[in-house]
Amino acid sequence: MEPTPEQSPHHAYPDHWEADVVLRDGGTARIRPITTDDAERLVSFYEQVSDESKYYRFFAPYPRLSDRDVHRFTHHDYVDRVGLAVTIGGEFIGTVRFDRINEQGRPASAPADEAEVAFLVQDAHQGRGVASALLEHIAAVARERGIRRFAAEVLPANNKMIKVFRDAGYTQQRSFEDGSVHLTLDLEPTEKSLAVQRGREQRAEARSVQRLLAPGSVAVIGTGRTPGGVGRTVLRNLLAAGFTGRTYAVNRAFDEGLATLDGVPAHRSLGEIDEQVDLAVIAVPAHRVPEAVADCGEHGVQGLVVLSAGYAERGSAGRELQRALVRQARSYGMRIIGPNAFGIINTAESVRLNASLAPESPARGRIGLFTQSGAIGIALLSGLHRRGAGLSSFISAGNRADVSGNDFLQYSFEDQDTDVALLYLESLGNPRKFTRLARRTAAVKPVVVVKGARHSGTNPPGHAVPVSRIPDATVSALMRQAGVIRVDTVTEMVDAGLLLAGQPLPAGPRVAILGNSESLGLLTYDACLAEGLRPRPPRDLTTAASPQDFRDALAEALADGTCDAVIVTAIPWVGENGEAETGDGEVLAAALRGAAAGGPAKPVAVVHVEIGGLAEALAAASSTAAPRTRPTTLAGRPAPAPGAPTGAAPATATAPTGPGTEAPAETAGAAGTTETAGAAGTTEPAETAGTAEPEAAEPPARPGRIPAYPAAERAVRAMAEAVKYAQWRRQAATPGKVPEFLDETTDEPGAAALIDTLLGTAPDPRGRPLTHDEARELLGRYGIPVRPTLPAPDPEAAVAAAARLGYPVALKTTAPHLRHRADLGGVRLDLTDEDALRRAYAEVTELLGKPAELLPVVQSMAPRGVDTVVRASIDAAAGAVLSFGLAGAPSELLGDTAHRLVPATDRDAAELIRSIKAAPVLFGWRGSAPVDTPALEELLLRLSRLVDDHPEVVSVALEPVVVAPQGLTVLGATVRLAPPPPRGDLGPRRLPNY
């Protein structure tokens, strides 16, 4: 909304203050500056506010606004006087304003840094978190305008407003003066205020997804009059799944006399339906979608699933249509899945929603699935169904114009029906937020991610998001740091998801292997070694092994304290006539489940080759249907009753989330399972300083369904991912910290002043590289000494430099094409006297060119050690990243570099240097002396602190860093400064605009 000429011409309308937000109940609203065009909206809004709320706002009866009031509340200079409004459907539901004041409380201008603030929220919208969202945004605006404190006068009876201020997390002072409560808020963000903000964000976004997945009523807009077509297919699937709510078919082309379609009420528009519809599935051509969205918004629909195509996947024109669609939906407070979506599914018994194009609703299970691709979604649903796995929820987001993977993580974190979250992502709209949410979610349940479009360098059609410059290997490392299980294919995602959803987490990497095929056991053993596991020698039960033999061997392996996990291999038994007998997989499955139920809780996976019914029977542990039992064994001999050995207890399946996770109650055995599940709760939690973590529980006492794999490599890879995730969970329980010594040996104010001086009053947005001396001075402020170098434009200058530094010295060329290229002869070491230095100078210039081209320098020699490289850089999308590797071929040719997000803790630094493949070189490989890794860790922490404290430091490269047995030496450093990129993750809550 643009300002009118009446407004101050020297303060342009601040459109960057406009934001869409998710409120506490999951609905959306828009926050924007108030302009002179809003007079009628303000008057209408005020008329709908109760007399009590007006009294709390003005401390006296105030039935209506005068013309002077309206003028004052709609005319702002956006510097000393600012007003913001929250709108839904274009109408105000809440307002806030501040007026800058001086020490006497009178109107003032800068440099006065205090402002009086006042709120007013329509009674019908109180309790939705409107005032809390307004406080976040008006505080950010005030900080931008140089205001550091808010002052507010509140009547003692206005408990709701007092609570808004009290719960915000800002440092505040309170006093009682002249019959009112005087509050002063320091607007500098604190850890508590940030925790409050993120806690509210989490609850609101989780609730917004829950409203979509658990509606009380659904309307399919665009239902065809004849069988077939997208809309009619969705309606059929809704009915087939047994949706527990009310369903409506809507199509403006329906005949007026048509009352029902496929047994549900048929209507020409939503206005004909005599109740509010919670969810609308839109399946009409793109040009008719705006009309359908308007109909939904005007009749109170809470959310949309837009199946229609023809948007950003079609190019720039389609992208504009998509943006208009999002703006229109959010203006009514609705969230969107899509457009170009495949649909959503919720298998909870209390919901049974299949609002998708999937012809068959998956079974109930403990896996939540999010995908940005309809085709991949179809493949995943089919693959999970074939392997007997059930889902708790499914979202296919299509172009992901609104609801994203971040929203799904917010929902999965709270959803008690989901034990494992699987995500297929083709783009990351907000990588910083994704990493933060993934870390929190992974602390209580596994998060498995496949990232598509890894190497294309662009986003898929329809995904208008910031493009990150960091390579995919770095993205993978950062996901690992956040506890995300990153796999390469959707097959691997299903493999890992099945194991994590049905088995407890392993306590370590020790794996027992047993089975009736020596060759298959050896393949499994080799695969374990390749994945970094510690396998025990395979136990061959021979081809004559019966199900009872398998049961006994598995029970023995599980009871062995030196074993953390078991992989069972099985092939068909060969009969006396030489023909393979597939046998009865159900009997073998019952034997394996019985052994797993009676032993310690350890993960079990099965590798099988053409054993009919085995995978299905193993999967039956998570099914509500009883499996068939047959009295034959794999070898054709009589067998004990399935799942009921002497003295065996019933199998009990619990959530596979390991230590510190609430485990749902399930019982599993040969007769099937009983699960307790339902829709996510809708009770609004109290506002607290942060997000409440799920209640901790003991590890699962017994495994559930046993996953089966057709190849040893797949089973082992899934087990290896579970081992690494379990290790991350154990470490995450006691997070690292930044050592206190950094606070005593760093000069943050001095570094800030130096950076301000170097950037100047009008810095180039592209930034500037620092000279060698400037870089040395800045790094020195954080205790990072860089060995000095002196220019040597001619032999005499080289000799003079050596005399100043002291022999022995090194002669190095620093021209860009020769930097760090000792292999080209541009570096000469251990020059012990003037003669050696002159000879080296002559040889280098004769070999490589004139001094003016080579830019030679002289540097004193450092103690011998291992050459490493340490870097830090800021990516606009992912944030600050700390990197480490060995200098030269290992990092440059082989890509052997490790990465961690900044700020790094002591644990991050230790893991960083140990996670590269060449790490043994640092720890005494082949009898060499171990180097000073504590000094290296300290260097990493100091560099991390520098870039975290000063976002203007956009890149640093320390190369080489020679790490000796005692201490280290930084021989080269390049630093680049630039105006800091915006940090959207630290500002007030807002939905992204794609």
Structure description:
- This protein is of the alpha/beta class and 994 residues long.
- The chain is built from 28 helices and 43 strands.
- Strand 21 (447-451), helix 13 (472-481) and strand 22 form a beta-alpha-beta unit.
- Helix 8 packs parallel to helix 9.
Short description:
With 994 residues, the chain is α/β, with parallel strands linked by helices. Helix content is 32%, strand content 22%. An 8-stranded mixed beta sheet has the order 1-2-3-4-5-6-8-7, with helices on both faces. It has a 7-stranded mixed beta sheet with strand order 11-12-10-9-13-14-15, sandwiched between helices.
Rg over CA atoms: 33 Å
How large is the share of residues in beta strands? 15-25%
SS element count, helices: 28
Shape: flat
Question: Which tags fit this structure?
Answer:
alpha/beta; 43 strands; disordered N terminus
Task: Record the SSE blueprint.
Layout: E1 19-22, E2 28-33, H1 39-47, H2 51-58, H3 67-74, E3 81-88, E4 91-101, E5 114-121, H4 130-144, E6 149-154, H5 159-167, E7 171-177, E8 180-186, H6 191-213, E9 217-221, H7 230-241, E10 246-250, E11 260-261, E12 264-267, E13 279-282, H8 289-298, E14 303-306, H9 316-331, E15 335-337, E16 343-346, E17 353-356, E18 364-371, H10 374-386, E19 391-396, H11 405-414, E20 420-425, H12 431-442, E21 447-451, H13 472-481, E22 485-487, H14 490-502, E23 510-515, H15 518-530, E24 534-535, E25 539-540, H16 547-559, E26 565-570, E27 573-574, E28 580-581, H17 585-598, E29 604-608, H18 614-619, E30 666-669, E31 672-675, E32 708-709, H19 712-732, H20 741-744, H21 748-759, E33 768-769, H22 772-780, E34 789-791, H23 795-805, E35 809-813, E36 827-831, H24 834-848, H25 851-854, E37 856-860, E38 866-875, E39 879-886, H26 889-892, E40 897-901, H27 906-914, H28 933-949, E41 953-963, E42 968-970, E43 973-977
Parallel strand pairs: 5-6, 9-10, 9-13, 10-12, 13-14, 14-15, 18-19, 18-20, 20-21, 21-22, 23-24, 23-25, 23-26, 26-29, 29-32
Antiparallel strand pairs: 1-2, 2-3, 3-4, 4-5, 6-8, 7-8, 11-12, 16-17, 16-19, 27-28, 30-31, 33-43, 34-37, 35-36, 35-37, 38-39, 38-41, 39-40, 41-42, 41-43
